[in-house]
Design a protein that fits this description.
3 domains; five-stranded antiparallel β-sheet; 8 helices; SH3 type barrels; 243 residues; Arc Repressor Mutant, subunit A; alpha+beta
């Protein structure tokens, strides 16, 4: 196979991956990423379509894959697999048990699609990484993945929250906006609190009860950077829950 053919095949595979990971992508963005002309991207998209990939062109927007279409598992390089195995050990020390469970299952799926030489090396590496026993290993929450789903689906959550200041319990409906990991190795959710009619930071380990409710909210116009900049200006480093 000619060098140019290999280069194009690699680009076509990368375009497929991008189309699956992004809701919509423009030809100009693809051209810039791969340092080729827009005309070349047109030819690549046409080649993928002829190969049976259901690509939808949305006028003046870009390209997207037909709903429900999935690409076969991506092959990981040895270095990529090693990075994921190493991070797995760090995740095991995380304070949220739901994140540990989901990450472990994801890594197991990744291990399943590795070719045997890489799989054997990954198994060896996983046995040669240890974490200091002095690092805390207490799982203090189990709601991170549930809140993540509510954030991306724009769904309101009903929580029972224990205040860190006076130990008062309050019931609130919140609109998840973002996550923050603080110096005390705790996860916090930044959310619009309908009780306070403002954005607040809630420690996940102080959420006593949480349940999704069938109420949607409009995507927040505020950016995470703007929120953190405002909190830092008014309160210092935002490592204190402001709920």
């Amino acid at each position: 196979m000619e060098r140019n053919d290999i280069k194009r095949l690699s680009r076509l595979t990368a375009i497929l991956t991008i189309l699956q990971t992004k809701r919509i992508v423009t030809s100009s963005a693809l051209a810039k990423k791969f340092d080729v002309s827009v005309r070349t991207i047109y030819r690549d998209i046409n080649a993928l379509e002829q190969a049976g990939v259901p690509i939808i062109a949305e006028e003046r927007k870009g390209y997207t894959l037909m709903e429900g279409y999935r690409i076969p598992p991506v092959m990981f390089t040895e270095s990529e697999a090693n990075a994921l195995i190493t991070i797995e050990q760090l995740v095991q020390k995380n304070s949220d048990s739901s994140l540990i469970k989901e990450y472990t299952e994801a890594v197991n799926k990744i291990k399943a699609v590795l070719v045997y030489p890489t799989k054997n090396k990954a198994e060896l590496l996983s046995k040669r990484i240890a974490m200091s026993p002095l690092i805390p290993n207490g799982n203090t929450s189990n709601s991170l993945t549930l809140i993540q789903n509510a954030l991306t689906d724009f769904k309101v959550l009903k929580i029972t929250y224990l205040s860190a200041q006076n130990n008062d319990e309050t019931i609130r409906n919140i609109e998840p906006f973002a996550f923050y990991y603080n110096l005390q190795e705790r996860w916090l959710v930044i959310a619009f609190c309908r009780l306070r009619n403002d954005y607040r930071m809630f420690r996940l380990d102080r959420i006593l009860k949480i349940e999704p409710i069938e109420i949607s909210f409009e995507p927040h116009k505020l950016t995470l950077k703007d929120f953190l900049d405002t909190k830092e200006k008014n309160f210092g480093i935002p490592d204190i829950p402001l709920s």
